[in-house]
Design brief:
The chain has four helices and no strands. The chain is an all-alpha fold and about 100 residues long. About 10% of the residues are buried.
């Protein structure tokens, strides 16, 4: 196991742990980005073996990263506009009447 893969796995595990323990939506967004960076780091070790595979892997990771970031940012904005908080528990408590 190379150092890049080890760093990638550690970043992914830190991101997953952070998602599991936090209730703040902004921290969840940062944790998801940490997982994405970990996936990029783990993918870097494959670059010398098969550059074509890395190109498609990076392309897919960028598409996933952009879509999840935009969806979560919209969720954070809408939740804050309705409730004035960025806590996950306020999503069900802040329903429009």
């Amino acid at each position: 196991m190379t150092l890049a893969i080890l760093v990638g796995v550690v970043l992914i595990l830190l991101g997953l742990y952070s998602i599991a323990v936090t209730r703040n939506l902004v921290r969840v967004l940062i944790s998801l980005e940490l997982i994405t960076v970990g996936a990029f780091a783990a993918l870097a070790a494959v670059a010398s073996v098969n550059p074509t595979l890395v190109f498609y892997g990076v392309l897919i990771l960028v598409m996933i990263s952009v879509s999840e970031a935009s969806i979560l940012a919209a969720l954070i904005y809408r939740n804050y506009a309705l409730t004035g908080e960025t806590d996950v528990s306020s999503i069900t408590a802040g329903r429009e009447t």
